Amino acid sequence: MATYQYRCTGCGSFDVMRPLGEARPEEPCEACGHQSRRVFTSPMLARTPATLARALHAQEASAHEPRVVSDVPPSRRGPARSTDPRHALLPKP
């Protein structure tokens, strides 16, 4: 639903909610019933926070281009095994 603004000559401005693109050029005033002309105002735009924008972009991309993982990321690998044969004789934790 979109909010459209109209201005009555006697009562002033009022808003009407209608589906997007279905605004009439004139609308009856809510208070007095006289026909009021539509006032063209700037659209209400809001900037999406950066973290939300990144999350939405990642979600959208994953729907069509899922990332294929072929190896465990380096941060999740266990400690590297030593090639020193003496270490094999140490007790295991």
General description of the model:
With 93 residues, the protein is α+β, with helices and mostly antiparallel strands. It has a domain at 2-39: Rubrerythrin, domain 2 (Single Sheet). It contains 1 helix and 4 strands. Strands 2-1-4-3 form a 4-stranded antiparallel beta sheet, with no helix packed on it. β1 and β2 (12-18) form a beta hairpin. The longest helix is centred in the middle third of the chain and has 15 residues, at 50-64. The protein is rod-shaped and about 95 Å long. It starts with a strand and ends in a 29-residue tail after the last helix. The model has no long low-confidence stretch (mean pLDDT 84).
Question: What's the layout of helices and strands?
Answer:
Layout lengths: L1 E7 L3 E7 L7 E3 L6 E5 L10 H15 L29
Antiparallel strand pairs: 1-2, 1-4, 3-4
